Amino acid sequence: MARKILIVGGVAGGASAAARLRRLSEEDTIIIFEKGPHVSFSNCSLPYHLSGIVESVEDLLLMDPDLFLSRHNIEVRTDSEVVSIDRKNKEITVKNKDKVYKESYDKLILSPGADPIIEDIEGLENASVFTVKNVVDIDNLSRYIKNKGARNILVIGGGFIGIETAENLKLAGYNVSIVIASKQVLNTYDYDMVQIFHKEIHDKGINLLIGEKVKEIENNKAYLFSGKVIDADAIIMAKGVKPNTSLAEEAGLEIGETGAIKVDKNYNTSDKDIYAVGDAIEVYNSLTHLPMKLSLAGPAQKAARAAADHINNRVTMNKGFIGSSAIKVFDYKGAATGLTESMIKSRNIKIDYGIVRATLSDKVSLMPDAHPLHFKLLYEVPTGRILGAQAIGKGDVTKRIDIIATLIKFNGTLDDLRDLELCYAPPFSTAKDVVNYAGYIGSNLLNGDFKQVNVDQVREIVEKGGFIVDVREKFEYKRGHVKGALNIPLSELRKRYNEIPKDIPVYLYCRSGQRSYNAVMALQNLGYTNVYNIAGSFLDLSFYEYFNDVTTGRERILTGYNFR
Q1: What is the CATH number of domain 118-239?
Q2: Phi and psi for 507 in degrees, rounded to 5?
Q3: What are phi and psi of 142, to 5 degrees?
Q4: Assigned fold of 331-449
Q5: C-alpha of 491 from chain center
Q6: Which stretches within 447-496 are classed as H helix?
Q7: Burial (CB count within 10 angstroms: exposed 0-12, middle 13-18, buried 19+), residue 160
């Protein structure tokens, strides 16, 4: 029997649900209601219009109402805001310009998305403030800064949209500042990893202000609580998003503990005839077994398909989500999946974990475009189950994180990772890829074969006078080293190991961790029991220390940096 299915909101969730519904039935009447003028666009590509990478704003549009109708027999009503839901009579109220009317439904899918968080700042109402949510937003921003001759742009917030918007504005030649209240940008990365991005943003000429808040806006200037003043011809709010739940709340639908719409495994709300998908809902985290908010296009499309399937009495399999994402920050690329250390600590997740830090070449080092790839892996203790990973570099980071995401989905372990057979040729990777190395290192740590400390612990070790050994060659040591470190190259270690005490902790490092690991194993075989490898070693340590050194003027623990 033919049904009438209404969908509130388009883009990734609503449009995907509509297309799937049509593939499963030619009889149903399907209508999408979109508050704005565009129903389907590439919202992840919006910032790239500012730099001209996406030349025309029209290029951002994917499907218009005429195409939906001709290709899929789906009616799209743009500029149509759904203002209320009457669950008892199974009707919605729609406002289209000056017209208000009701539309009945058999099934209703909510895909209202999320709204930008607008910070409460004195004088903001008199400033030129923009958000980046849709095509209209990005067009308004682009036209304003061009027509008004704006030169100084302030971005408040450091998430994906904030960083991508700032980068593209800088590429377009604007003076850009980023103000963020927390201690780092991009919370999908741990603090020790994100310092690579901090350095890149700083080095590319963006004024990155961490741990700062705007107090007041007046006369195109932003006054911070710290007393700093920033020129701001235009202000972009990119602090984050909050689920758009107003319609659901007013209809009496259940809201979850995260503040998003609560749904079951089939994306049913607390009303059996109403479904919800996309950024407005909370989803199941298959690693923590807790609900979470996840504003990503891929999960939204998967949820949309599952909801459409359930409406058509198809069995759905909801295994939850782990959250896989990627970003480009000027010359660097980043990708992450699963849990991070900061997520585990901040949410008080009860799980015992270990970490692997490995920085290796992303392909055979003889290749002219080979670059270091910084990799961090989290695994469960004692099972070795993989919990998450982050990769940052100038090469193919998504390949490595996609591998980890796949293993997590199938409950893979360190041993599985170590034994993976991956494609190899010098232009693509090394014979043992960095992910294989991570499996080896993690297995060794889990077995207790050696001990390590991470780069975020080194400053405290130095300040407390810890005994540190640099096992790089003398010419490498002269270019820059940890202050107070004793230089004993690995090539000389077996002749000079008596210079290293046995009665105190000893910490060893090299450029990327391989030589220092070999040195640790050699010393252990020589009777040392209290030696530690500094994970990631001098290359990662340089990245970790640099941004805070140059922006705070603190005393440095390195005599020089190495970023190669």
Answers
A1: 3.50.50.60
A2: -120, 130
A3: -60, -45
A4: FAD/NAD(P)-binding domain (3.50.50)
A5: 41
A6: 458-463, 474-479, 493-496
A7: buried
> What is the enclosing helix (H) or strand (E) of 498?
none
Residues 6+ apart with CB under 8 A from 396: 333, 362, 428
Looking at the chain, the domain(s) classified CATH 3.40.250.10 span: 452-552
Superfamily of domain 452-552 in the CATH hierarchy: Rhodanese-like domain (3.40.250.10)
Contacts of 377 (CB under 8 A, 6+ apart): 355, 356, 358, 386, 388, 389, 404, 417, 438, 442
Diameter of the chain measured on Cα atoms: 88
Q: How far is the C-alpha of 545 from the C-alpha of 550, rounded, in Å? A: 9
The predicted-structure confidence for 55-114, as pLDDT tens digits, reads as follows 998 888 888 888 889 999 999 999 999 999 999 999 999 999 889 999 999 999 999 999
Exposed / middle / buried, residue 202 (Cβ in 10 Å: 0-12, 13-18, 19+): middle
pLDDT at 77: 95
Range(s) within the chain of domains with CATH label 3.50.50.60: 4-113+242-311, 118-239, 331-449
Query: b or e along 422-445 (b: 16 or more beta carbons within 10 Å of the residue's beta carbon)?
Result: eeeeeebbbeebbbbbbbbbbbbb
Residue 424: its pLDDT value, please? 93
Angle, vertex CA 73, rays to CA 22 and CA 64, nearest 5: 105
Supply 314's token pair. Answer: 């198809």
Position 63 scores a pLDDT of 82
How would DSSP label each residue in 61-129?
EEE-HHHHHHHH--EEE-S-EEEEEETTTTEEEEEETTEEEEEE-SEEEE---EEEPPP--BTGGGS-E
| 476 Cβ contact partners less than 8 Å away, ≥ 6 residues apart | 511, 562
The catalytic residues are 44
**b (16+ CB within 10 A) / e for 226-265:** eeeebbbbbbbbbbbbbbbbebbeebebebbebebbbbee
Distances (CA, A) of 559 to 276, 508, 536, 554: 56, 17, 18, 13
Below-50 pLDDT ranges, the chain: none
Decide: 8 and 31 in contact? Cβ < 8 Å.
no
Q: Following CA atoms 539, 545, 551, 555 in sequence, which dihedral angle do they give, to the nearest 10 degrees?
A: -130
Strand partners of residue 533: 452, 508
* Domain boundaries 4-113+242-311, corresponding CATH code: 3.50.50.60
Per-residue confidence (pLDDT) for residue 38, from 0 to 100: 87
Output phi, psi for 245, to 5 deg.
-110, 5
pLDDT for position 12: 83
pTM: 0.94
Question: What pLDDT sits at residue 1?
Answer: 77
Question: Are the CB atoms for 359 and 397 separated by under 8 Å?
Answer: no
